[in-house]
Amino acid sequence: MSQRPPALGFQLGINEALAVPAARRGGMASAAVEAELQEDARQARALGARTVRAHTFNFPRVSCDRLARTPEALADMDAWVRALGTDLEGIAMVSPWPANQTAASTPQYLPDDLGAWGACVTALVERYDGDGVADMAGLQAPVRYWEVDNETDLKNTTRARKVDRTYDPSTFCTPSEYGRVLTVASAAIRAASSDARVLALGLYRPHAASGQAYARAVLAEPGVRESFDIISLHTYHDDDGERLAGGIVAVSALVPDKPVWVTEASVTDEGGLEEQGRKVASYAAWAAMAGAERLLWHTLADPPRRSNGRSGNIDFNTNSLLQAVDGGPATEKPAGAVYRHLAGRLALHDLSGAAPDGEGAARLRDGSVLLFAGSRPAPAGGLSLQTGEAVPAGGEAFAPAWLNASPRLDAR
C-alpha cells in the first residue's frame, strides 16, 4: 500500500472539495457519483490543493446515526476515499449526528449510548487506516486525519435553521457534552490506528469572546487536552484576515502545544471577482503569520449560475474557486487562479514563520514576499498571482503577487 507524501510547511487545501450535493445525490447511480468525485479530485489537484476535507452533513453523509439507519451510506465514504488516490490528504469527519444541522436530527446532543458511538468511530477508522485489518477493499493509502464534529460553539449559541421545535441552544452541545463526545471518539480513533491524528472543535467564532470562552470550557473538561492533536478553526469575514489571525493567536494561547489548522475559510465574490481572488492571498498570509499550519478554502466550485449570471446568492453560493454556467464545465474564477499560482509558489517556499513586512505583505524566512494588498517595487522580480505573468526585476508588483527574494546587498 502506498503512503501519502508528508506535508511540509504551510499547506493550502479545500474544504468539501470532493462532494456530490444532496439535492442530486438521491437520483445518481453509484458509477456517476464515483465519476463526479474523481473529476473533483482532478480539479483539486490541478489547483495545487494538498488537503481536502469531508463533512458529515454534506458529503459523505456518514454520521453515526445515519449509518445505523442506512449502512449503504458507507459506499459514499468508500468512493470519497478512492478519489483521494495516494496524493491527496483527506480529513474525514466523524459525528454522532449530521453536522451542522444536528438539532434537526435529535433533541439532545449527547448520544444515549456512548459505547455505540465509540464503536461506530472505531469501525470507520479501521476501514480506512490501511493496517490490513478490516480495510476497505482496494484501499490505496490510509486516511490519517479525523475531525470530531464541526462548529460546536455555533451549535451551543445559535438556533439551527430548519428546526421546527423550540429549544434552548445554550443547553445543546454544551462544552461538557462535546468534551465527552470528543474523548470517547479520540480513544476509539487511537485504538484503531496509532498513526491517526485527531482534529477538534472546528470553532465557528475563534475571533470572538464567545468562541474563545467555549473553547476554554471544553479544554477544561477531563481528558480533553490529551484527546486531540490539532485544533480546527473557521472564518467567514470580509476583512483581509485580521480577525482570523486574532482568533488563531487567541486560541493558540489556550493550547500552545497544539498546531492550528484553518479548515474552513472564504469570502463571497459579491465584492468583485478580482477582490475575492486577492483575499485568497491575504487569508493565507494572515493565517501563516498568526501561526496556522494549513488553510482550507471553502469550497471547490460554486453551484452552476444561470445564463443571466445569477445564482441566488445565499450561504456559500459564490465563495468557491471555480464556477459553472447552466451546468457546463467548471471554469476557474480569479480566486482559483490566485490559489493555483500561490500553491505553486508554496510547493517551493515555506510560508510558515512569515512575518509582516510593512502594510499588505508577509515576508518569508527565505526572503520572498507575499504581497496581498497595494503595490511595491520588485527588485528581484516576481509573479502576478492573478495572471501568472512574471514581474520583471525592478518592476512594480500589484497585489496579489509573489516577490522573489532579493540578493543580499553585502553578498560578494
Quick gist of this model?
By secondary structure, the chain is α/β, with parallel strands linked by helices. The chain contains twelve helices and 18 strands. Strand 11 and strand 12 form a beta hairpin.
Strand tally? 18
Tell me what the CATH architecture of the largest domain is.
Answer: Alpha-Beta Barrel
CATH topology of the largest domain: TIM Barrel
Residue windows where pLDDT falls under 50 for at least 5 positions: none
Q: SSE order, as H and E?
A: EHHEHHEHEHHEHHEHEHEEEHEEEEEEEE
**What structural category arises from helix and sheet content?**
alpha/beta
The percent range for helix content is 25-40%
| CATH C-level name of the largest domain | Alpha Beta
- Our count of helices gives 12
- Return Rg in Å: 21 Å
What is the CA–CA distance across the termini?
A: 50 Å
Proportion of β residues?
15-25%
State the shape: globular
Mean pLDDT: 93
- The strand order across the widest sheet is 1-2-3-4-5-6-7-8
The CATH H-level superfamily of the largest domain is Glycosidases
Count structural domains. 2
| Biggest pleated-sheet summary | 8 strands, parallel, barrel
Would you write up a description of this structure?
With 412 residues, the protein is an alpha/beta fold. It has two domains: 11-353, TIM Barrel, CATH 3.20.20.80; 354-412, no CATH class. The chain has twelve helices and 18 strands. Strands 1-2-3-4-5-6-7-8 form an eight-stranded parallel β-barrel, surrounded by five helices. The protein has a six-stranded antiparallel β-sheet with strand order 11-12-13-18-15-16, covered by helices on one side. A hairpin with a 5-residue loop joins strand 12 and strand 13. Helix 8 (209-219) packs parallel to helix 10.
